[in-house]
Amino acid sequence: MNIQHPDLETLQASLAGQLSDDQESIAKDHLADCESCRQRFEAIVGSGEEWSRIASALRVEAQSQRSLSSGSFSGRGDDAPVYPSEYAQSPIDFAIGFLEPSQRDDSMGKIGEFEIMSVIGFGGMGIVLKGFQEELNRPVAVKVMAPHLATSGAARQRFLREAQATAAIVHPNVMPILSVSEKASLPFLVMPYVACHSLQQRIDADGTLPTVEVLRIALQVAEGLAAAHAQGLVHRDVKPANILLERGIDRALLTDFGLARAVDDATLTRSGVIAGTPQYMSPEQARGEAVDGRSDLFSLGSVVYAMCVGHPPFRAETSYGILRKVTDSEPRSMREQNAAVPTWLERLTSKLMAKEVSQRYASANEVAQLLRQCLAQVQQPMVQSIPTSLQDAPPKPRKLTLLAFVFVITIVAGASVWIRLPSKIPAKTAYYPSPVQQSPVGLFEPQSQQAYANAILPSEEMLQTELSDLSKEVDALFSLLKSESGELNAQ
Q1: 140 DSSP β-pair partners
Q2: Are 312 and 204 in contact (CB under 8 A)?
Q3: Residue 2 included in any domain
Q4: Which of 342, 361, 394 is a domain's end point?
Q5: Would you call 261 helix, strand, or coil by DSSP?
Q6: One domain, residues 41 and 97
Q7: Which domain holds residue 464?
């Protein structure tokens, strides 16, 4: 009886799990009975080529685990990452599950034309993968929609809108979109791969940031928002997790325009669900009202607050509690928590976070201009000054004290007595020198007394004029004292 021994390709296919169930069953039964084939199979398993494949696969998984532990979406630094509740398995297993097979040993699989090398991070909307585009020989970041959202038409529409919104903005501080695929089972969009970490990770690691860093990041975010607003787009979800800081250079990138909506867009009806992040949401957005670019400015102010003190301005146990604080409460002063915060920076932040929309700055361009001047002043304090609108108000005139008032009244009384002196010197009071005194001839003669009096005393008309002016000054002083007394009573 001739026994059919499996050839080398069949054994390799069995090792790779590529046989059908029937073929795998036949191969296992044969290996159980055939010592020579079992030795051949063990030799294949122990070969250097197969061990190289296994080692490569393990390296890919380890790299993905490291990416997850410091990913920009998780915001966590734990050794064992906590996966979102929407995922029934780890993001690595999930990614491998939907990827197509790849011929590269260092690849987890393929999605479209992109080789997937590792998992960068994950969030409520999906998973971000590090990919490689062979045609252009460049790394990319691939954002894949989460499977629990892919079945929702509204979610797919929002995902596509993110790509369309971001593609309309060309600015160095906005993460660009290279391509999008909406028709795949799991829609995905492709972005440039940038070695970076999120501002949220920076705050979690370092706490408060130096003033110069706060200004530099806020300025770039404001400029990115200005570019978005120029296209009629409102970001609606400005927060530290959506601001990426590129390593090696001082560049901030605004990303995740998933909630962006054109100001005049009426095609997407409201579902009654408030979308956004409560800690950084504007009051009008929290109330479900219409928003414009000034809503993003409130969120920017909240981001500046978080950079200065290390936590969001509004915190509570529940999302509802946070939203109530956003709409009804004022945040605690930044300078009370961090004395290094300049007064003018707190003044700027307070105006950004004004509850009333009309009390905020009019545009992101205006905010960017102020931040640019402030940054220049911090870097070159001897050359540049703080914008006038942010400087301390000039001190009020010193109030008239009681002592000063008494002094003025005394002077006025003395002047009145002097004015009432007689304008002519009586003859009997004339001074005659003794015979031994030498004096100018005729100086004290009787006929010269009147001329002498007229020379040293003012005329009656002049006295009346001076008295009138003095009376007006006294009235003005009394009016000033009365008004200041009223202000003191009001305070």
Answers
A1: 131, 192
A2: no
A3: no
A4: 394
A5: strand
A6: no
A7: 402-490
Strand partners, 109: 116
Round to whole Å and give the CA distance between 316 and 257. 26
Tell me, what CATH number does 293's domain have?
Answer: 1.10.510.10
Q: Which residue has the tokens 């402030």?
A: 374
pLDDT at 193 over 80: yes
**DSSP string for 188-247:** EEEEE---EEEHHHHHHHH-S--HHHHHHHHHHHHHHHHHHHHTTEE-----GGGEEEET
Are 349 and 306 within 8 A, CB to CB?
no
H helix or E strand, kind and range, residue 376: helix 364-379
Residue 69 token pair: 């532990």
Q: Does 1 reside within a domain?
A: no
Q: What global pTM score does this model have? A: 0.63
For the segment 217-235, the average pLDDT, to the nearest whole number, is: 94
What's the rounded Cα separation, in Å, for the pair 290 and 299? 15
178 in the same domain as 203: no
Query: Do 37 and 5 contact (CB within 8 A), yes or no?
Result: yes
Q: Is 3 inside a domain boundary?
A: no
CB 196 within 8 A of CB 259: no
Q: Which amino acid is at 245?
A: L
- Asked if 188 and 40 sit in the same domain, the reply is no
Question: Does residue 174 contact residue 238 with C-beta atoms inside 8 Å?
Answer: no
pLDDT digits (tens, 9 = 90+) for 92-124: 566 666 788 888 888 888 888 899 888 887 766
Closest CA to 362 of 296, 284, 308, 307: 296
The reply to whether 29 belongs to the active site is no
Final residue in a domain of this structure, among 365, 394, 423: 394
Could you tell me if 375 and 409 lie in one domain? no
> Do 81 and 56 have their domain in common?
no
Q: Which two tokens stand for residue 373?
A: 């001047």
Is 381 or 487 the better-scoring residue by pLDDT? 381
Question: What backbone torsions phi and psi does residue 271 show, to the nearest 5 degrees?
Answer: -100, 0
- Write down the catalytic residue from 78, 106, 237, 475: 237
* C-alpha torsion sign, points 356, 358, 361, 362: positive
